[in-house]
Amino acid sequence: MPELWHVDAFTDRPFAGNPAAICFLDQPREDAWYQSVAAEMNLSETAFLLAEGEGFRLRWFTPAVEVDLCGHATLAAAHALWHSGRLPEDAVARFETRSGRLTAERDDGWIVLDFPATPPSPAEEPPGLRRALGVEPVEVARSRFDLFVVVREAAAIHSMTPDLEALAGFPARGIVVTAPGDGEGVDFVSRFFAPASGVAEDPVTGSAHCALAPYWAARLGRTRLMGYQASRRGGRVRVELAGERVRLGGKAVTVLRGRLEV
Q1: Which of 3, 30, 45, 165 is catalytic?
Q2: β strands within 2-128, DSSP E
Q3: 153 catalytic residue (yes or no)
Q4: Which domains, from first to last, does the chain contain?
Q5: Its pTM surpasses 0.85
């Protein structure tokens, strides 16, 4: 029976950061089975791993849909590979995904992911967006996957109570909302809402930082930054822009191990 791990990603303590389920497969399954397991787990992402060549085939599912890129579940998958003994602790984790080859490696207590950059481009503000978000945008853009909204102050990010039903109507995987940092060691803050993808608010979104990193690197004049995603669980993401790639750094904690009985 498939082995299942529950890992909190982008945190160094349990019950914080972003939880992901990691399912180790011994053979491929039908897509409907993957989706049913993800719906049963009812986390923002469930990752499915199958050994393939020198690495692993990796797929990500929300409770509602398969997605093309996910940071926190990739970080959690690498953590589970090392801690289950499937990979030596000093080995690079290699994943084949719908977004190409991704890697993860350990770096002084951190896990560092090598992901594609998805820089946002200026876009017209969709009608009804500011009403649905309940904030005043100073800039609106689109990345490869998401609407990207910049507001003036971090306080507006912390106090947001958006209309999730209205947000589900916008044609994007999700909506990133960001502002300059307001705390020591934090360069920018963000939140991420994806009700159209089956996730009301994602606690800490690695893939969103593939857009946040190039945006804030250009404005702050530095390629190494620290982001804080200000959800209820919260989490820090260390980012480094390297040309067309982004290195995402975080930590992870195992919460549960078990087996699926179906």
Answers
A1: 45
A2: 3-9, 18-24, 45-52, 55-61, 66-67, 93-97, 100-107, 110-116, 121-122
A3: no
A4: 3-106+250-259 (3.10.310.10), 121-243 (3.10.310.10)
A5: yes
